[in-house]
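User: Show me an example of a complex going from sequences to C-alpha cells.

Assistant: Sure. Here are the input components:
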Amino acid sequence: MKFSRRDFIKACAVSTALVSAGCSSGRQPVQSKPIDPTKTEADKWVKSVCRYCGTGCGVMIGVKNGKVVAVKGDPDNPVNKGLLCAKGYYLPQIMTAKDRITKPLIKKDGKFVEASWDEAMELITQRFKESLDQYGPASVGFYGSGQTSVDETYVANKLWKGCFGSNNVEGNPRLCMASAVAGYMTTFGADEPMGTYDDFEHCDVFFIIGSNTAEAHPVLFSRIVDHKRKNPGTKIIIADPRRHRSHEIADSAIPFIAGTDLAILGAMAYVIIEEGFTDEEFIKNHVCFSDGANPITWEDYKQHIKESYTPEFASAKSSIPVQEIRKLARDFAEPGKNTMTLWCMGINQRVAGVFANNMIHNLHLITGKICKPGSTTFSLTGQPSACGSVREVGGLSHLLPGHRLVANAAHREQIAKIWGTDPAKMAPAPGWHTMELFRRTVTGDLKCLWVMCTNPAHSLPNATFYHPGLEQTFLVVSETYHPTLTSKYADVVLPAALWCEKEGVYGNTERRTQHMAKAIEPPGEARPDVDALIDFAHRMGYGEVFPYKSFEDVWNEYLKCTTGTDMELASYAALKEAHGIRWPVKDHIGTEGTGMRFVAPDDPYVKEGVDFYARPNHRAQVFARPYTEPAEMPDKEYPFCLTTGRVLEHWHTDTMTGKCPAIMKAVPTSFAEFNSKDATQLGIKEGDIVRLVSRRGTVELPVKIERPGIPRRGLIFATWFEAERLVNAVTTDAVDAASKEPEFKICAVRVEKV
Amino acid sequence: MGSIQSIFITKQHKMGCNLMDERVERREVFSLIWKDLKHLLGYRVPAISDEIKLIRPPGALDQLSFLSTCHRCGKCAQACPKKAIKIAGPDKGPSLGTPYLEPGKEPCTFCLECIGVCSSGALRKKVLAQEYVIGKARIDNNYCLARNGQLCGTCKNACPVDISAIKMNSYLDPVIDVAKCNGCGLCVDVCLAPIPAITIEPL
C-alpha cells in the first residue's frame, strides 16, 4: 500500500476545488412507489382468476378510472390463499400494451387495413358460406384454446358441430393435455384428476415426473414447500433428465436419459410386485386388468411386468443404477404413507404419452395409493381453462359437452336436443385432430379456419412446415395483440377483449370452476370473442339457436349439458358468489362441490367407500403397456436430444409476458441450456450463439451453461417463448397414436457454432 | 471531534491490528485532518475514505490506495468489452477521473481485460477467481416482490452457478450470502420489481 503525503495533498486539492465548484456526492433518494398491490388505491376490487397457468389462482383486480391499476392474490381463494407469482403481479401491464388492436383488420393485397366489424363479419360469413356450399362441412375448422372462457368454446362448438355439421373443432389442449385426458379416460373412464390440491397437505411422498413445478406452477410449488416445511419428513422425489428449480426441495433425484421413463415406471411396478408392496384387497375390489385390447388377469399383468420391465432392463435404458430404481419403488410404495404423483408436459408431450399416463395410474392402483387424502394421481394443467373450457365443454374433434363423445349416437342425440339443432346434421365421426387439421391447411383440404385466443404458427411443433398452410387458408384470427406469428397469416384479425374486459368462467386443474367478473371496458372496438361468434352464427342463418343475451344465458344452457352426467356444474349465482366450486355439484345445488372424486362421502355419486363409477364394471383398469421409445432418439448425425420448456417469468408464446418491460429485461430471449461437459466438448461458452439443427428445421439461440437448470449429458434444454427464435421450427410433429398429442419434449438435433 | 488517541483505540477494537503499523496510523491521521478541514470550511465536503465509495473494477486496491495509485488514464474503460467501466466525473469528488462500475446497470463479467491494460497497478491480478469481489448485493425489503407476497426468484436464477450467492429462505425469500457474493450485478439487472430491489454496495 502506497499513500504518500503528496498523494493526500493532491486528493485534498481536487476535493477542495470540487467543494468550491458546488458539487456534492451521495446517493440519490429512491422515489418510492407502492410495491405491495394491497396498498394500491383503487375505486373497486373485482374478483377474478389469474390469466396465466392452470393453477387457477384467485385474484382481485384493482380498478381506478376504468383502468386496471393493480392485481393482488385473493386471500379468500383456497387455491392460492393470496399468493401470486411475478407473472400475476404484472398482469396490469398486459392490458395496456401498445400492440393491442382496437379495430378489425382485413388483409387486402397483402396488407392489413382497418375495417368495420360489419365489413369484417360479412367477409367471414361469405367465405364460410362459399366453403360450406362448395366443399362441405369438413372444409371449415375452428381452433380454440385453453385460455378462452367456457362460453366461447361452448358457442363455437355448438355452431360448428351442431349447425355446420363439422367436427373440425380443436384446441391447443391437444398439444398439452390430450395424453392426460386419454390416460384418465382409459384407466378411470372419466377425465380429469380425482384428487385436488388439498391432497398436497396430506401427502407424505411426492413423486414428481416430467414437471418443473417450481417454474410452471409456482404457487402450487409453494404449497408443496410449505407442507414440507411443516412436515420435514415429507419425501420429494423428482424424476427428470434436467435438474431444475424444483430440485431445490428434492430429497432424491432420478436423472434418467430423456425418453426412457416408461422403463423406470415399469421397473417400479416390477419391484413393487416382487417385494410385496401391492394392496391385494384394493386390487380385488376395485381394479381390473387389460392388455390394451382384451381383459387379462392380475397374474397376466405380473407376468408381463416380469418379462418386460426388469430393473436391469430399466437401468440399461435409463442409466439409473438398479439399486436406485429399487429404492425409488420402495419410497413410492412405502406402507402407511400417502403418495402423490405429479406430472406435466414431460409425460404428456410424448408419442407414448398415454402409455406413460396409464403406467403412472397403474402404480397407484396396484399399491392402493389412491382415493385417500394425500394419495392420488394428479396431472398438472398448463392453461387456465384447458379443463374448464375445452375438456369439459368438449372443444376437441372427438368430444361433445359434458365429457360426451361425438362417435356415440345417444350422446349426439342428447346434445342436439339441448342445442335445439338437428341431430342428423351432426357428423358421427370425429373430426381432424390438431396436427391433422393443420396438415389439411397445407394440403388445401381445409378452406377456412377460425383461430381463437392462441398462436399456432408459434406453438405448433415443426411449425414452419404449417406456415404455408396458414397462408393459403382463409384464416380468421381472434386476437388481443397484433402482430403475432399467427395473425400475420390472417385474412381477418378480430380485436378481442382480454381477460377482465369481459365476463367469463375458467376451470382449473382441480375441477374448480371459477367465475371472472368484468372489471373494465375493452379498448376501442375490441369485443369479447363470444360476441363475435354469436354475431357470426346469426349471419350464417342460425340465429334462432343462438338467442343469448348475456353470459348467464350461455352458462344456463351449458349447465343443461352437464345435468345427469358425472360432471354437474355449479349454478351461475353460486359461481358468482363463491371463490370457485369443484365439480361434481350434485343437481347444480350449493357451493360445496366435491373434494375427492370416486370416494364417499366426498363424492355425492358414491354411496360407500370407493367406486370407480365411470367405468362400466366399476373398476379402474390397469394396463399392461409395452416399452415404447420416442419417435426420434439421438443418433450419429443428430447426437443431442432437445427438450423444450418453461421459465417462471414467461408464459407460452410470450404474447402477454412479452408486454411487461421488467420481465423482458430479466429474460429477454429464449436460450439453449447445455451441460458444462457437453459445452466443453463442443467448444462453446456462455453467451455464444449456436444453431440447433434437426431433420425439420433450425434455430439460433444464445447459450447458457448449466443455468438456470442443469440438463444431463446429451440433453439440451431450450425455452420456446420467443417468436424471433422459433424453437418449434426444430421440434417434431410425431404424435401419440391414441391421444394425437405431439412429442414436443424429445427430438434429435445437432449443434453448430455460429 | 476525536483525537489521535481515540482513533487508535477504535482501530484496536475494530480491527485488532498492529498499532505500530506506520502506514495505517498515518492514514488515520490524515483522515482526521481531512474531517477537521471539512468542519473548518463549513461545507459538506465528501470525505475520501468514507462517503464516496465507488464500485471499482475487479482487482482494485483499497479505496485510498486506489485513489493514489490510479493514473486516471481511462484505458480500463476503453478495454471493457461490455462498456461497463465508467470514468468518474466531478460529482464523484476526489475520484474524479478514476474508473468505476455500476453493476446494476451493466453487470461485470469478470473478464479481467481491465487488469490486463492497467499500467499503474491500481488494478491487480489475484491468485484465485473468488478473490475478485467488486461489491456486495443487498436486498431492500420494501421493494423486493418476493418479500411482499409475490412468488419471485428471478435474482436467484441469475446468480452464476459457480457463485450461488442467493439462497431462497423458506423457498419464498431470497437472501444474499455475503461471503459468496462478488457484486457482479446480474441479479440487479434481472430484478422484476418496478424499482430494482437489489443494490450493489461498494466494499
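The lines above are the inputs; the final block is the predicted structure for all two components together. Residues 135-202 of chain B form a domain with the Alpha-Beta Plaits fold (CATH 3.30.70.20).
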